[in-house]
Amino acid sequence: MQEWITMADSLKPTPLLEQHQQLKARMMGFGGWNMPVQYEGITVEHQSVRQKVGMFDISHMGKFLLESANLREKLQSLVPSDLSQLEPGQAKYSVFLNEQAGIIDDLIFYFEGHTESGTEKGKLIVNASTTAKDKAWLLEHIPAAEIGFEDVSDSFVLIAVQGPDAIATLQQLTPTGLQAIRNYRHQAGTILEQPAWFARTGYTGEDGFEVMVDPATGKKLWQTLLDAGVAPCGLGARDTLRLEAAMALYGQDINDTTTPYEAGLGWLINLDKGDFIGSKALRQQQDGPQRKLVGLQMQGRNIARHDYPVVVDDQEVGIVTSGTFSPTLGKAIALAYVPTPMAKAGTELQVLIRNKPQLATVVKKPFYRRPKS
Amino acid sequence: MSFDYPADLKYMDSHEYIRLEGDVATIGITAFAIDQLGDIVFIELPEVGDDLSQGDTMGNIESVKAVEDIYAPVNGTVLECNTDIADAPEQLAEDPYGQGWLLKIKVDEETALEQAMTAAEYQAKVEG
Fold first, then answer.
1. Tens of pLDDT along B26-73?
2. N-to-C CA span, chain B
3. Does B41 touch chain A (CB under 8 A)?
4. Residue A4 sits at the chain B interface (C-beta within 8 Å)
5. What is the maximal distance between C-alpha atoms in chain B?
6. Mean pLDDT to the nearest integer, A326-352
């Protein structure tokens, strides 16, 4: 085996670095940040989230505070989703698109409502590696004079608490009624008697919250959750969890050459709301894209990884974007772009793994759906 | 975390170990390397009868995180493959130097093992 051990230097630490080091986490660079990949092991961390509750330091995520008159209307030109009907306390998953309808980033907009002076406020949470690009894009299209914009990416801790026991566990630490905050809703409150912001969103396919607090409270919250038996989980488990839930990873499954229609994100698009960047290109694609992002289940245990070719009769027809071994299914799974005629569930394809074609079957996404409680 | 480095083994810098008994070498992967790889899901090994040359890729080991080649640490012919561990790769971590052996190879006479490390040298390298 070669040297696969990555050294982390010149990377940004999150405020919880000491906590990760105390837990002897294995660290790696991700989006310019020094992040924990795993503590006890990817599979056990994965199972903790599926069966009980786990927590992730996601302080690396880009965090923007926005305020302006008619904020939603201004953002409408940058996203394909209709934000006009958002209520205060509601969140919306969407994307920034370029003129060709390629995805610049995926993001969540959290609408907070109106201030006393009549302006609208909201938060935008974006990917770590695209934070600078998103900031530039936003301010290129909405003049700085017209929007209050603050990049607080380095100023706050963001902890995702996920799993069937997540809400009961967090509720012990806050008077804010968490059960009343519905899915894809958010609310300011307190935790450990300090200001906190709770969002019922996540990237695992489980129920749970993402909690934003100041760094000092973040350290205390991490330790308190640890003492309460919450499993610390790294980016490794975050990847296997999101992949089972078939949630796209920016830079891997989606990028500025893939469109929402190709990526299975057509449900984000509202072409009736008026023009936005990318709408022209999307209108031309309404008949359906040439290729689609599908779920693959491998017949063998080999993992089809990012950039492995999808082949049929020795002809390359597509490309794998993400792959892992699914702890829940006990099978290797992957996401791959394949020609639309091959995107139907049940289609048999092959993935070239170290020059050997390995059998793969197109399956319905997601690979895992949490049982209804 | 501390790992075992049995003194009777030779170690390659690509993390294979060699237990030489007469002209038969038992090959496996070190506990340190297995820990680095994390949850192992797949091991691909050569077939019985395959001729191997030192340094050749002879198989691979796949974890959730990564896939790594396994290199032949000696010249020789494969006598036996541990099919039990190939069928249950997740158990490799439990006993890498015992039940977790991968191959037995009949070693050619001209195999040179000078570049193989002692336990102490290997430990110093990986933990240093």
1. 999 999 999 999 999 999 999 999 999 999 999 999 999 889 999 999
2. 14
3. yes
4. yes
5. 38
6. 97
Question: What domain range is A121 assigned to?
Answer: 62-151
- B127 and chain A in contact, CB less than 8 A: no
Q: Is the pLDDT of residue A8 over 70?
A: no
* Whether residue A239 sits in one domain with residue A124: no
pLDDT at position A373 is 67
CATH architecture of the region B10-127: Beta Barrel (2.40)
The whole-angstrom distance between residue A230's C-alpha and the CA centroid of its chain comes to: 21
For B64, the closest of A1, A4, A324 (CB atoms) is A324
Helical pair A42-51 and A235-244, crossing angle rounded to 10 deg: 50
Query: What is the Cα–Cα distance from A173 to A162, expressed in whole angstroms?
Result: 15
Domain ranges of chain B: 10-127
Give the pLDDT band of residue B114 (cuts 50, 70, 90): confident
Count Cα neighbours of B21 within 13 Å in the Cβ-side half-sphere.
4
Give the SS3 label for residue A272.
helix
Two tokens, residue B73: 């640490």
Element (H, E) at A54: strand A54-57
Other beta carbons within 10 angstroms of residue A305's beta carbon come to 18
Among B60, B85, B79, B84, which residue's Cα sits nearest to residue B71?
A: B60
CB within 8 Å: A303 and B89:
no
Q: Looking at the domain assignment, is residue A269 inside a domain?
A: no
Is A88 in contact with A73 (CB distance < 8 Å)?
Answer: no
Indicate the burial class of A117 (C-beta count within 10 angstroms; 0-12, 13-18, 19 or more): exposed
